[in-house]
Amino acid sequence: MTTASTTHQELTIEVAGGEVFVRTGGSGDPLFVIHHDIGAHAWTPFYERLAESFTVYLPDLPGFGKSKRPEWARNVRDIVALAGLTLDELELPTASVVGLGFGGYVAAELATTAQARINKLTLAGAMGVKPEQGEIFDQFLVSHEDYVRSGFADEGSFEEHFGEESDIEQLMVWDINREMTTRVGWKPYMHNMALPYLLPSVHTPTLLVWGSADAIVPVNSGALYAEKLPDARLEILEGAGHWIELDRPDELARLIVEHEGR
User: Which one, of 148, 152, 183, 185, lies nearest residue 41 by Cα?
Assistant: First the structure.
């Protein structure tokens, strides 16, 4: 797996009676990053780039990665509530928020319920709204590894980050993450029919970033977000897949830094 030489710290906090694992690094204004459904496998070059301009907080959402599973959490709104409580425990009354894929779904829902807490918002390949053309890729139809492979625009990118064949430890992490995804995102699959009706109330400045070759969340989902959010702009990265932060870390970090006015 690709990681960067870094001075980031790792800590565990208690949220709603369960332990939440958090990676943090950098200096400056707080930037709270919500990861994909496959989790945040490491402190990658993307986070290192962001840490040059912000204090980055990267929690494993409850039930994902190294964080304890809340057995009571059964929908995305439960995860949104836990994300808000995580901000509380980190003593972040306000922060800018970046949501990646499934994390973009969580971030968008958080914005509809607590937009005053979000300075600026970035959604990259966000799930959450039902595409008008195509559909959000059903990860439960394929193996863990094939799902991750499908999120890269080319095979070489997968191998760069995870090797030619994923080891058992990585497969077990993906299995834990998929089980939690099933609990909260199965029906309806990775979207909320109410979300498009709630987004127009969100006036938070929002950057939308999509890869033109995203095989997991169709690009027209980005267009729908741009249509519904009053203060949003959509950037398309040509040739990028779904895992933009792995595929194009410098480009995505640059767009976020510019969006934040750094």
Answer: 148
Q: Which helix (H) or strand (E) holds 234?
A: strand 232-237
Cα–Cα distance between 47 and 245 in angstroms, integer? 9
Q: Which of 155, 164, 149 is nearest to 215 (CA)?
A: 149
Q: Which residue, 261, 253, 229, is CA-closest to 100?
A: 253
**DSSP-based three-state secondary structure for 124:** strand
- Paired tokens of 201: 């109330």
Mean pLDDT of the chain: 95
* pLDDT exceeds 80 at position 247: yes
For the CA atoms of 248, 250, 256, 258, what is the dihedral angle to 10 degrees?
-130
What is the CB-side half-sphere exposure of residue 35 using CA atoms within 13 A? 29
Determine how many CB atoms are found less than 10 A away from the CB of residue 235: 16
- Asked if 60 and 66 count as a contact pair (C-beta separation under 8 A), the reply is yes
Q: Coil, helix or strand for 195?
A: helix
Encode pLDDT of 119-172 as tens digits.
999 999 999 999 999 999 999 999 999 999 999 998 889 999 998 888 999 999
Q: How far is the C-alpha of 84 from the C-alpha of 235, rounded, in Å?
A: 27
